[in-house]
Structures are given as structure tokens and as C-alpha cells.
Amino acid sequence: MTETAEQSTGTKDYIGIEEVSKLNFLVPLFGEILGTAILVFIGCASCIPGPKSELASPLHISLTFGLAVASLAHVLGPVSGCHVNPAVTVGLLTSGNCSILKALCYIVAQCCGGIAGSAILRAVLPDKAFATSLGMTELNPGLSAGQGVLVEAIITFLLVLVVHAVTDSHRDDCKGWAPMAIGLSISVAHMAAIPLTGSSMNPARSLGPAVIVGSWHLQWIYWIGPCLGALLAAVVYKLGLRAKSKDDEASYDF
């Protein structure tokens, strides 16, 4: 009977009914909305050409996105875990570190935040800058859709692998460095993939500008690719790379 009760409790925890039904769950939800909105606003703003129509360099955009996430992680890590990315949430759900209902709520909140961030960016830009599509992620014309999915899967695989590694409670070598490590993984991925796919690695980041601009061309690439990469990273880390020193599960709060 005891074993059955424990299994039942574990199932309920993974579904997360009790967790999401609490009033204080609104706080992390707000954190995800706010964090994703700020990330999309600041990150996509870095893609906008300057007054003389000079284009932002990949290095400039890469550092902006990476440092933005690192900064947000310090603020929102203890509040919501600072996922600010549906792919990260999918990865943590796959590895058993996020309940199903919490993941669904987080993804909805992140999408709302991404749209809000893009709407605010549109509101503060002149019409000429708006023609740049609000920093939308676009596939290089020389790549097929399948290649785009593969690129997005690979760079998101790196991100989610790093998230699992540096926030693993079994490791002591990364204490205090998780936000910077995650931010650096985002920056290096952007440096490599901006010329190929625009380097989304975050479905909410691509969704926001798409909704405000009203362009959905190949938008599915920026959902399938990152989510596949996140799922694979979670499985690889959970089964083969996770540090083993205790029996308790890792905590993914910064």
C-alpha cells in the first residue's frame, strides 16, 4: 500500500494539479511573462538598423541576447526558474524537473510575453524601422526547411544541455555561474546560427514578431527545431551525463 501511495503521489506531482492551483503560482507566471517580454524587446531591438540604416553585426545581436538572459536569470531565477523559453520548459518537462500543467502554463505565459515585448517594440519604433520586421527570425534562402530545423535543434540542444548541467544540485563547480554560463551558450549559438536561421532557439522569441508583423512563413521551423533539440538534450543529460552523488532530483532554480 505504501509503494502504491508513493507512486500515486509521484504521478500527481508530475501532473502538477496541486502546484498550479495555488494562488502564489501567479507570481512565477508573471515572472515568465515579464522576463520573456523584456528578452524579446531588448533582443529584437538589437536587430533594428541604426539611424544611418547600418545593420547590427551578429556579434552585437549575440551579446545582447546572451547578456539579457544572464541578467534576467539573476532576477527571475529564484522566482520562476527563468525559463523565458518554451524549449527550455519542454526540456525540463522531459527530464522530470517540471510538471505537465506547470509547463503548459509557462509556455502560454512565455508566448504572451513574447507578443507583448514585440508589441512594445513596435510602439517605440518609427515606421522606417518597422519595415525591418521587428527582428524576425528568417531562414537563409540557401537552406531547406529541414536544414533550418536541424540548425535550430543543434543550438537549442546546447542551450538545454547547459541549463541541465549548470543547475544540477549534484554539482558544486558551477555555483553562482549558472546565469553567465547559460547566457554565454546563447551568445555562441547566435554567433554561429544568425546567418543561417536567425538563431531563434526560443519559439516565443520568434512568435512575438511574427504575430505583430503578421508573417507566419516557415514559423513552424522555430517550434519544431528548438523543441526537438531540447527534448534530446534532456534525455542525453538525464541518461548519460547527470552527476550522480545523491538520490535526490536536481533542482532547477537558480
TrEMBL record:
What topology in the membrane does the UniProt record assign? Multi-pass membrane protein
List the transmembrane segments: 25-48, 103-125, 145-166, 178-200, 220-237
Keywords assigned by UniProt, alphabetized: Membrane, Repeat, Transmembrane, Transmembrane helix, Transport
The record's PANTHER family line, in alphabetical order, gives:
AQUAPORIN, AQUAPORIN TRANSPORTER
Localization: Membrane
User: Which proteins does it associate with, and in what oligomeric form?
Assistant: Homotetramer.
Q: Name one Pfam family in it.
A: MIP
The domain of life is Eukaryota
Classification from the root reads: Eukaryota, Metazoa, Ecdysozoa, Arthropoda, Hexapoda
User: What GO molecular functions are on record for this protein?
Assistant: channel activity
Signal sequence, renumbered to the chain: none
Gene3D superfamilies per the record?
Glycerol uptake facilitator protein
Which InterPro entries does the UniProt record give? Answer: Aquaporin-like (IPR023271), Aquaporin_transptr (IPR034294), MIP (IPR000425), MIP_CS (IPR022357)
Question: So what family is this one in?
Answer: Belongs to the MIP/aquaporin (TC 1.A.8) family.
Determine if Membrane is one of this entry's keywords.
yes
A GO term from the CC aspect: plasma membrane
Q: What is this protein called?
A: Aquaporin
